[in-house]
Amino acid sequence: MLQWLALLLIVAASIFLIYYFYLNKKERVIALTYQDLFQLFVISSGIYAIYSLLITLAFMSTYRIEQYLYLANFGLIYLLVGKVTPVFENKGLPVRRWGVVFALILAAIALMTFVAINSHGEMTGAHRRFD
User: Fold this and answer.
1) Residue 130 pLDDT grade (very low, low, confident, very high; cuts 50, 70, 90)
2) Could you tell me the residue range of the domain that residue 33 belongs to?
């Protein structure tokens, strides 16, 4: 039951965020301000923390203390994020460079996958994993 509540929470938050940041704007080009990005951060991080507590049932006991660290970290970041303001520069987007880096990352992942597949034989009992 709680998993369904968590799923509904994610769907409701997604619909709200799409409406608030996209459908609600009258301009054709959407320009997000610092305040908009801060609200997006607070909403998405808060939903993630609530989702994590609901899925793991950590609110029923203190056995899963790492789940409460989400709340502590979230509170600390919330307090400290307003102290600094980033400066962005429009340097353009070098599409070719990003494409090459992306291709190199894919090649590295493919190589690691190939090595992992060929580094050992079949694992005992692997065919009965979901029985």
Assistant:
1) low
2) 2-90
